[in-house]
Amino acid sequence: MFQNTKCECGHQNPTGTVLCEACGKPLDEKEAGGTDLLEMRYDGAARRSQKADPSIIDQVWNFFSSVKIAVYLIIITLIGASLGTIYPQEDIFLSNMDMASYYKDTYGTLGSIYYKLGLSHTYESWWFILLLVMIGTSLVICSLDRVLPLYRALNKQQIRKHESFLQRQKAVYTGATDNGEEFIALFAKQAKKRHYKVTRTEDALLAEKSRFSRWGPYINHIGLIVFLLAVLARAIPSWQLDEYVTVPEGDTVRIENTDFFVKNEKFTVQYYKDEELPAELRGTNRAKLYRTDAVLYRCLADCGPSSPEPKLEQVASHDIEVNSPLEYKGLKLYQFDYDSTPVLREVSPMLIDKQTGKQYGPFKLAMKNPQTSYELGPYKLELRQNFMEFAIGEDGKPITKSRDPKAPAFIFLIKGPGLSEEGEPYIYFPMQKDKAAFSQDKLNKGIADRFEIKVGSMTDVKFVEFTTFLNVRVDKAMPYIWTGLAISMIGLIMGAYWQHRRIWLRLDGNAVTIGAHTNKNWYGMRADLAAALKAAGIQVDPKSLDNGGNRT
Amino acid sequence: MRGSARRPVQIIILLGVLLLGGYAIGKTLFASKEGLPSPGDTPPAFTLSTLDGRTVSLEEYKGKPVVLNFWGSFCPPCVKEMPEFERQYEKWKGEGLEILAVNLSEDNLTVQNFVAGMGLTYPILRDVDKDTERRYKLRQYPTTFFIRPDGKIGEVYAGGMKEADIDERVQRLLKD
Prior knowledge:
- The structure holds two protein chains of two kinds.
- Chain A has helices at about 30-35, 55-65, 65-85, 100-115, 125-155, 165, 180-195, 215-235, 430-435, 440-445, 480-495, 520-535; strands spanning about 170-175, 195-200, 205-210, 240-250, 250-255, 260-270, 285-300, 310-320, 325-330, 330-340, 345, 350-355, 360, 365, 375, 380-385, 390, 400, 410-415, 425-430, 450-455, 460-465, 465-475, 500-510, 510-520.
- By secondary structure, chain A is of the alpha+beta class.
- Chain A has five domains: about 45-155; about 165-210 and about 500-545, TATA-Binding Protein, CATH 3.30.310.80; about 210-235 and about 475-500; about 240-340 and about 465-475, no CATH class; about 360-455, no CATH class.
- Chain A has a five-stranded antiparallel beta sheet with strand order 1-25-24-3-2.
- Chain B has helices at about 5-30, 75-90, 110-120, 130-135, 165-175, and strands at about 45-50, 55, 65-70, 100-105, 125, 145, 155-160.
- In chain B, strands 2-1-5-4-3-6-7 form a seven-stranded mixed beta sheet, with helices on one face.
- The termini of chain B are far apart.
- Classes of the chains: A alpha+beta, B alpha/beta.
- The interface between A and B is large, with 50 and 44 residues.
């Protein structure tokens, strides 16, 4: 469609201009004759890059330049993001379980469909990232296409505007004056009092206030772009880490994918007393506080998982509690969980000759990789077999049900005076409960009447009472995310708490025409205008300045 | 900005979007899947010691068909599989088949006793602190990887197999 973009005032406007850049007269011929209120968005300036014959690049550009498209993108993204909240996302689970069956078993057919659609990792899916990238693009292009023309329009405003431009503002005054010169001077003085910036010619005036608030939305957008880029930057290797480590009390454990080791020096847990708990929770152990006294080491050499003795250097220590992580150069260790199931580590039992009452030992028996032979006085113990979680298999043979010392059992061959040449087998259960459950004496048959292996007291038993779970995090993007959010907040405040107010005055002989515009708070705008008129000798009720359509 | 600068600015911004956005989206598409390494993937490298004290890395076996089996004495289907693997090893050894059986971080005595009782002749590797199994993202025991001579995974089987299942897969592996 051909559009004549040359205004009657002689100014040549770019394609898409609504109000003449110079005098403000509506350019559309239909509009020009009307008396409706003007659409003042972007001061009527043409969006940048609006062309009569767009190329492919222009078409792509124009697609992203549309605010309508931006709104649709945001709505689609919101709907997409909400889908991810129906069931828990995969990444919250720590264990390496089979996710497909987890969703099916826990949430039924819907869960299975949810998993198959990939909604169990909504926020990492290609379509979600694509939407974010499109929103980012739209942010940049929309802003650029609007802020530059707006900047130009506001930077070189013509003071004397077209009559129809003034008449069709939302706050208008028309009247007459005997002394135009004096009227303008008094009007200007009052406007300045109210912190307006006044520019004037002989027969026109422009009073303007808080123009900077117009840049608020764009500064907000810059902040959001910084935010989005920071989120994307997390993809840079070593910028983000999210690991979990299990550290039994007293142990030093390697942190996967880092050079660091962490030691759990001591773990403390305090529970709520019954009187501190609501009735329905009484009698249960509710943790009030749990704390890991942790030491962080950096590994200098021999760091591999199969290395028996990595060379460590202490770099930090901290008593980690919930919300009080250990921090070291961007690495943070958070208290995540704990386990209070005791784990047996080592026992020091004695060999007791039941007939003579003589005791031999004690000897150290580690649960993991124990020594295989022991000399005890005249007797010799050879460790033949060990079981971490003892059980009797289907074929009647002893088996182990796991690799953790939950129900350890050891089969020794005892050699010595009064015993057969090749030795006699003796099975030993360090834990009293297992000894009873598997009837140790019965299994040992005859030898049980002559010998017993047992610990003297609890001091001969070493076990780990607590195991702590720590969450190890690195997030180098965080400072940039905060910067982005701060910029965005500044923009929001600029746009929200200040208003750009403008008053145009035009003198035609004795006739005075005044139009005023603001983006919000018309009440204040009219009050400013009425005050200026009053100072110039004209009493008006601020309400009478309303040209229609103003509710505030 | 005047009209002359407009086109270059457009092109720079669109190119920037294409690059950054393409990278971000590409990453989600080609991200390492959470689950087990799958057929066509290169299996994670490892260097582990064997029961008889040698050191073995997966790399040394490049060019040969390899059956990589993860097992533990605490896992009954693993235990059941071991003699089947032994028979398969005897059967296909001549064709170049290698079997590597990685124990799931159990202690010395347990593994020694177990292997001695079985009379296994293929190498038994010792994982430490679940490191290798974690890198292979195992969710179930036993899990067996059939690795082609070109070093890529041909097939993966999670769970216990019957001897016929092993035989069939080994034959496919030897054909590659």
